[in-house]
Design a protein that fits this description.
Length: 195
């Protein structure tokens, strides 16, 4: 089993480490790898799009020639998880900031996002979250975080903070407004691998 982390910009190494720890716990012998090419995309069974800067990641996905390959593999059923900036890119609709920056969304999930809903970098925070299907509280770390403002179709809210959706799932895809790779826990990466 090989699971990948898109490695064009953002919080890549932390995701790779956490993903490998999750694989070691639930699928020993598997590997977490970085993904930068179509060949890489074709070689993985699941994919994480990390946090970072959504406009930059979007442009680099196009420049590296992997934007369309990610969409195709996801539509074929490959599990994909987007965190923070990755959450923004997973959405079918964005706010005016997404439009103003000409950020090309992957459009994989039936949801709308507000790009900087929880404020700027200096307004980053940590909050305990209740997540459907996960026992106990999870410590969500929000860094210049988006919010999911609307879901429809098959997309379902899994967690809320102050009545705003911060985690959603649609089939084998998950979107998180926070950074699970910084929490010290592998529980959400394990949940992702179970998809």
């Amino acid at each position: 089993m090989k699971s990948g982390v898109v490695a064009v910009q953002g919080d890549v190494s932390e995701h790779v480490s956490t993903l490998q720890a999750a694989i070691d716990r639930c699928r020993p012998g598997g590997h977490a790898v970085t993904v930068r090419s179509i060949k890489d995309i074709e070689s993985v069974e699941s994919l994480i799009i990390p946090g970072g800067e959504s406009t930059t990641i979007s442009k680099l996905l196009v420049r590296f020639g992997i934007f369309d390959a990610i969409v195709r593999r996801a539509e074929e059923g490959m599990p994909v998880m987007g965190t923070c900036a990755g959450c923004i890119l997973m959405a079918k609709k964005g706010d005016e900031q997404v439009g103003r920056t000409h950020t090309k969304l992957l459009g994989l999930m039936d949801m709308k996002v507000d790009r900087n809903f929880f404020g700027r970098q200096r307004e980053s925070f940590e909050s305990h979250l209740s997540i459907d299907g996960i026992s106990g509280d999870f410590s969500g770390i929000f860094i210049r975080a988006p919010a999911i403002t609307e879901v429809w179709g098959d997309c379902r809210s899994l967690s809320r903070l102050d009545d705003k959706i911060v985690m959603a799932r649609q089939g084998s895809m998950m979107a998180l407004a926070f950074h699970p790779e910084l929490s010290g826990s592998t529980v959400l990466h394990e949940a992702f691998l179970s998809l």
